[in-house]
Amino acid sequence: MEEHARSVKALIELHLGLERKGPGDPEVSAYIIKQLPQLPPNPHIADMGCGAGAATLLLAEQFHSKVRAVDFSKEFLDELMYRARQKGLEACVEAIECDMARLDWESGTIDLLWSEGAAYNITFEGALKAWRPLMAVHGIGVLSEMNYFAEDPPERVTQYMRNAYPGIKTEAQNVDLINSSGFEVLGVHRLPSTAWWENYYGPLRENIRALKNSNDHVMQAVIAETEEEMKFFEQHDEDYGYTFYIMRAI
Ligand SMILES: C[S@@+](CC[C@H](N)C(=O)[O-])C[C@H]1O[C@@H](n2cnc3c(N)ncnc32)[C@H](O)[C@@H]1O
Questions:
Q1: CA-CA 20 to 30 A from 205: which of 155, 178, 214, 231?
Q2: Of all atoms in ligand 1, which is nearest to the CA of residue 21?
Q3: Residue 200 CA, ligand 1 centroid: distance in Å
């Protein structure tokens, strides 16, 4: 197996069992859902890069409608379906193992497209481009994206991002991007840094502890990089973080 595939495999293993595979917060998501414009009855909903379905299950519970949950990790989708069964929600979840950048779905059909902490994998711009044709008339998108909070972030942070996330933008740039991608921005909502620690990094630290003595050098490299990421965020959570963009297809 080539090095990149081994890193992805180790990253997936490091995240197994975690409810969230990235920063997020059920209260923030619930708050955003409450602000959304009225959706049609039995809306068509998709959760792109759903992981173990933190948002999928919330959406299924909230709308009592089927959620298409897309991820390319079978392990994460298995976790999602296990959790869906535990909550009696399996009939509301369709787990789809595929690349979210290459969906052959009928165009103009999605009433609510949700994606937390995943769009960056295909670039935020690429995600908007790939998903816009799927949107129903006036369909709503809710995407979270890691971006700079400051218009002019410190040199140390831009330097770090050159490697960590070269495509990172400011919120203003992302708003412009959305507005020029066939959507209009309805709202912008920052995820508080406490959500990173309480819901993501905290549980992830437990997994790191359990795998710390693994003699797999790829896993060791993934752990070292993850710890570095946490340390950096601790020092710079005012300079960057996740922002939810609520948008409507126009
Ligand atoms: C940071 S995790 C977030 C997962 C979930 N939304 C959450 O908040 O817990 C990003 C997810 O995107 C998935 N992913 C990355 N690239 C993908 C692609 N091209 N197609 C489908 N899923 C992808 C990963 O497997 C992972 O589950």
A1: 155
A2: 9
A3: 14
- Least Cα distance to 247 among 113, 140, 118 occurs for 140
CA distance linking residue 83 with residue 57, whole number of Å:
8
First to last CA, the chain: 44
pLDDT at residue 3, rounded to an integer = 85
Range of the domain at 102: 3-249
Instruction: Decide: 187 and 141 in contact? Cβ < 8 Å.
Output: no
CB of 24 within 6 A of ligand 1: the answer is: yes
- Measured from the Cβ of residue 83, the count of other Cβ atoms closer than 10 Å reads 18
Q: Which two tokens stand for residue 86?
A: 């535990």
* Contact by Cβ (8 Å): 155, 216: no
Task: Evaluate: CB of 71 within 6 angstroms of ligand 1.
Answer: yes
C-beta 101 within 6 A of ligand 1: yes
Instruction: Please list the residues that pair with 45 across neighbouring strands.
Output: 67, 112
Separation between Cα atoms, residue 155 and residue 163, nearest integer Å: 13
* DSSP 8-state secondary structure symbol assigned to residue 167: T
Q: Is 22 in the pocket of ligand 1 (CB under 6 A)?
A: yes
Domain count, the chain: 1
For residue 155, report the distance from its CA to the centre of ligand 1, in Å.
29
Walk along the chain (250 residues) in steps of 10 and give the mean pLDDT of each run.
90 97 98 97 97 98 97 97 98 98 98 98 97 98 97 96 96 98 98 98 98 93 97 98 98
pTM for the whole structure: 0.97
